[in-house]
Amino acid sequence: MRKVAIMLAETGLPYTSKYVEKQGNGKCSDAYRAISPNCTAPAIVDDETGAAVFESGAILCYLAEKTGKLLPPSLRDRADVLKWLMFEVANIGPIMIELHHHMLSDAADNAGSLLQRHRDRMIRCCTILERQLAGREYLCGNYSVADIALYPWSAILEDMAEISLADYPNLNGWASRISSRPAVQLSTK
Questions:
Q1: Which residues lie across from 140 on neighbouring strands?
Q2: Rounded distance, CA 142 to CA 185, Å?
Q3: Domain 2-67 falls in which CATH fold?
């Protein structure tokens, strides 16, 4: 949800937040299911267009398209941004969610080996990001939806994965640059 809050702050779009209460077993109301079939947050409804969008990556793309911000106009540059956005969606997010689950879980006999497996996968992802950020301020040169999608994970990397950003100087510098952006600071309030 922080990704969407950052994007809304970066674009300056007006919005109203609504709390959605889930029922037991991840169930939600029929009204919310019409917006988010998976009953997950975040999800948005654009009153201007009537579009209902769920999943943070899709929301970031929708808001970038709507505002003409944070997604490059050229096809080649756009592809570069989108591949890093998909890297977050397909790798970082799922790995961090699994790490969180296994860190909290005592039940499984193999929780320790699964935890290490996910931590190793996250280290691999950090190494990939470290190489990508070599000589760049942002993932694709200019600040984009890819940076917005990946940043919130970097902010909790040490707590959730026990991986220090200090071990990745390029990634650490990138996270520091993003954390100092006014929209990112505003998104935490």
A1: 142
A2: 19
A3: Glutaredoxin (3.40.30)
Strands (E), 31-184: 43-45, 52-54
Query: What value, to the nearest 5°, has the Cα angle with vertex 154 and ends 183 and 104?
Result: 120
- Contact between 178 and 147 (Cβ < 8 Å): yes
Q: How far apart are CA 6 and CA 184, in angstroms?
A: 5
Instruction: State the number of CA atoms in the 13 A half-sphere of 55 facing the CB.
Output: 12
Strand partners, 52: 45
Other C-beta atoms closer than 10 Å to the C-beta of 97 total 12
> Is the distance from CB of 150 to CB of 84 less than 8 angstroms?
yes
- The yes-or-no answer to whether 2-67 and 75-187 have a common fold is no
**CA 86, chain centre distance (Å):** 10
Class of domain 75-187: mainly alpha
**Global confidence as pTM:** 0.92
Q: Mean pLDDT of residues grouped by 10 in the chain (189 residues)?
A: 94 91 75 92 95 97 98 97 97 88 62 80 96 98 97 90 94 97 86
Question: From CA 29, how far away is CA 27, in angstroms rounded?
Answer: 7
Q: Could you tell me how far CA 138 lies from the centroid of its own chain? A: 15
How far CA 87 is from CA of 74, 118, 124, 126, in Å, comes to: 20, 16, 12, 11
Domain ranges for the chain: 2-67, 75-187
